[in-house]
Specification:
Elements lengths: L14 H11 E8 L8 H6 L8 E11 L3 H10 L7 E4 L2 E6 L2 H14 L6 H15 L15
Antiparallel strand pairs: 1-2, 2-4, 3-4
């Protein structure tokens, strides 16, 4: 079995390796929160499209690994144009996560459009992508293939 040797001077990982790693260890998630803090106010909706209906939409992309794999997770954060400040250690689990809708749109979605996942996780990615298109309707998405209709 081949092992991935990560050169600390190199800033990139092979895209196919990233796809496979996320297929096994990644998570695409959309949290919804309807609470007293989120009234449907048109003024807020103009500046934050996630608040248009009084529900906060929190998209997330994350990858978790044992803390011994810090170098790999740090390289993954770099791959998606984030530094180690996006890494969080919880007990013995290291997690890279981005919740920025703009970052997910600009960095994460283009990668997985170009390198589709091969497991059931592709369905989770497509759902996240669809939600992103709904909450950021005025922002362009470059689509390499059409989304399936449900």
């Amino acid at each position: 079995m081949d092992t991935l040797h990560i050169d600390s001077k190199s800033r990139s990982l092979p895209p196919d390796w990233v796809r496979g790693f996320v297929d096994g260890e990644g998570c695409f998630y959309v949290g919804l929160s309807k609470g007293w803090r989120m009234p449907p106010v048109k003024a807020n909706a103009a500046t934050n499209p996630k608040l248009m209906v009084g529900i906060e939409v929190r998209p997330s992309f994350s990858v978790s690994q044992g803390s011994a794999s810090k170098d790999v997770v740090a390289k993954l954060a770099q791959y998606f144009n984030h530094g180690e400040d996006r890494l969080r250690l919880d007990r013995y689990i290291l997690k890279y996560e981005t919740r920025s809708a703009n970052h997910i749109r600009d960095q994460v979605i283009p990668h997985f459009d170009r390198y589709p996942l091969r497991s059931q996780k592709q369905g989770g990615f497509l759902k996240l992508r669809r939600v992103m298109e709904m909450i950021l309707p005025r922002m362009a998405f470059v689509r390499s293939s059409p989304l399936p209709t449900a």
